[in-house]
């Protein structure tokens, strides 16, 4: 399923934090045809946050009330004004902290229930741990639910995102995928919900791992006399270049790594030291700890 350029699309972001703003900015700066018909509303709680959002997005509906009738009237209008027999249903992104998701979902439930099931908004969460089963307990029966796990590079339209769809959302998950592709060049739909928590541990937390590696390499360079001003750009560009090469090349990553490691050379000695020090096992343990923490959220 695609999003028609002739059909208005209504998006609501509950929670106007960095993640929501990154997606909104990506949509507003997009040249994709469907975004020209996009109607966006965003909610936030703090007054200073509201003012910031209104200043930044003057063309959007910004409110502190998740049940603001203007949001839901616009969502209904998007269905009535569509020239298609099967318009794209509205999408509600819950972009709050995991601990706030139950409250928000229960708050929205009566409003969502007032929609005909065929055009009821698709609900998308953007946090680890909260399962489809839990969301189904809080939302009206039959609501299309998509769990998503983006990462922070969406701020610069370079995210990596995993999706999992409930049975009710199997025909709608591609709508969510299309929206998120505006800020995430890679959007992967996983068939097993448990794998989304692994995605959260790998790519959701992944930027922090790479930042830590960058920090460590820069610190090493500084200890050897290279200034931070010189070292940091070199390390960051090396990271960017390696990522680009890994994505663009048809060769496996292990082959690319071996091609840099000339037998007996300095790079081989460095990688051999990391290998003998158990770095791969350390990454495995670190990612497992992240996964364990994500799973604990299921019982919050």
From TrEMBL:
Q: Which UniProt keywords apply?
A: NADP, Oxidoreductase
Give the GO terms filed under biological process for this record: L-proline biosynthetic process
Q: Which InterPro entries match?
A: 6-PGluconate_DH-like_C_sf, NAD(P)-bd_dom_sf, P5CR-like_CS, P5CR_dimer, Pyrroline-COOH_reductase
Indicate the segments forming the Pyrroline-5-carboxylate reductase dimerisation domain, all copies: 193-293
Top-level taxon: Eukaryota
Alphabetical list of Pfam families matching this protein: P5CR_dimer
> Which GO terms of the molecular function aspect are on file?
pyrroline-5-carboxylate reductase activity
Coiled coil ranges (UniProt) are: none
Which HAMAP family does the entry mention? P5C_reductase (MF_01925)
Q: What is stated as this protein's family in its record?
A: Belongs to the pyrroline-5-carboxylate reductase family.
From the Swiss-Prot or TrEMBL record, give the protein name: Pyrroline-5-carboxylate reductase dimerization-domain-containing protein
Species name for this entry? Answer: Aspergillus pseudotamarii
Q: Upper lineage ranks?
A: Eukaryota, Fungi, Dikarya, Ascomycota, Pezizomycotina
């Amino acid at each position: 399923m695609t999003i028609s350029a002739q059909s208005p699309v209504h998006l609501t972001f509950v929670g106007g934090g960095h993640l929501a703003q990154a997606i909104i900015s990506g949509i507003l700066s997009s040249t994709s045809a469907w975004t020209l018909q996009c109607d966006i509303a965003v909610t936030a709680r703090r007054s200073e946050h509201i003012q910031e959002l209104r200043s930044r997005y003057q063309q959007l509906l910004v409110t502190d009330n998740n049940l603001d009738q203007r949001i839901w009237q616009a969502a209904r209008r998007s269905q009535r004004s569509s020239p298609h027999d099967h318009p794209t249903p509205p999408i509600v992104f819950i972009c709050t902290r995991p601990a706030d998701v139950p409250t928000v979902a229960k708050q929205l439930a009566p409003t969502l229930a007032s929609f005909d099931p065929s055009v009821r908004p698709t609900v998308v969460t953007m946090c680890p741990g909260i399962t489809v089963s839990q969301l189904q307990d809080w939302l009206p029966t039959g609501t299309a639910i998509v769990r998503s796990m983006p990462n922070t590079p969406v701020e610069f339209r370079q995210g990596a995102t995993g999706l999992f769809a409930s049975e009710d959302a199997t025909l709608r998950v591609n709508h969510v995928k299309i929206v998120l592709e505006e800020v995430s060049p890679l959007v992967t739909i996983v068939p097993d919900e448990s794998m989304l928590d692994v995605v959260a541990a790998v790519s959701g937390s992944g930027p922090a791992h790479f930042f830590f590696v960058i920090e460590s390499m820069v610190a090493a360079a500084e200890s050897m006399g290279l200034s931070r001003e010189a070292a940091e750009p070199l390390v960051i560009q090396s990271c960017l270049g390696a990522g680009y090469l890994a994505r663009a090349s048809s060769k496996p990553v292990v082959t690319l790594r071996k091609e840099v490691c000339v037998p007996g050379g300095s790079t081989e000695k460095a990688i051999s030291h990391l290998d003998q020090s158990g770095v791969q096992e350390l990454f495995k343990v670190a990612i497992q700890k992240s996964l364990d923490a994500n799973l604990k959220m299921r019982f919050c």
